[in-house]
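Input structure tokens:
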């Protein structure tokens, strides 16, 4: 058990360890001919986290064109859509439990959920160390962006979980 420098209402952002050893957010490709970004993201969260998490347009933070380097095919471009979902601590604990047990993708595409440390222990670790890991696509800048948007004094708004959806551009 460690002692951290945060209080009980601190931010509790989560990412995941992917099958390729990179850190990223839960989420995945969305087929806009069959679903909206939000319903597609909820579907992906169900598969990867094993919990039904409704996503609404109000949870959207930012969209951006991913660098060509990160697109899955060289002939298409990728738009990443970042969402931040605020949840109570107990809900986040439920996500951690389900993601490591009943989630469909557990042990395959997703190796586990990871808490992003916003604290240091004896001056070591913390966000700066965490950011030195390897991230998929623009997940690192998405993390920084979501923290900048979410970092506010403790309020009654709950705690954030961050997720993303992507869709391929219709033009290639
Ligand atoms: O967390 C992320 N942030 C930004 N872009 C991401 C993130 N995770 C994946 N990606 C990008 C990188 C890849 O080009 C595509 C597809 O990712 P993948 O996880 O392989 O998607 P599927 O599981 O195949 O739907 O998205």
């Amino acid at each position: 058990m460690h002692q951290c420098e945060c209080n009980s209402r601190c931010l509790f952002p989560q990412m995941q360890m992917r099958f390729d050893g990179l850190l990223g957010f839960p989420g995945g490709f969305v087929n806009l001919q069959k679903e909206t970004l939000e319903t597609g993201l909820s579907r992906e969260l169900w598969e990867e986290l094993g919990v039904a998490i409704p996503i609404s347009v109000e949870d959207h933070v930012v969209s951006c064109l991913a660098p060509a380097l990160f697109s899955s095919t060289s002939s298409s471009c990728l738009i990443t859509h970042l969402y931040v979902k605020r949840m109570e601590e107990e809900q986040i604990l439920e996500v951690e439990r389900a993601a490591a047990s009943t989630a469909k993708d557990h042990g395959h595409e997703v190796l586990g959920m990871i808490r992003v440390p916003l604290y240091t222990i004896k001056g070591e670790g913390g966000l700066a160390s965490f950011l030195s890991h390897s991230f998929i696509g623009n997940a690192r800048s998405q993390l920084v962006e979501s923290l900048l948007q979410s970092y506010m004094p403790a309020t009654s708004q709950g705690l954030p979980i961050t997720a993303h959806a992507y869709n391929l551009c219709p033009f290639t």
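The two ends are 51 Å apart (CA to CA). The beta strands are 14-18, 23-24, 27-29, 60-65, 78-87, 110-115, 159-168.
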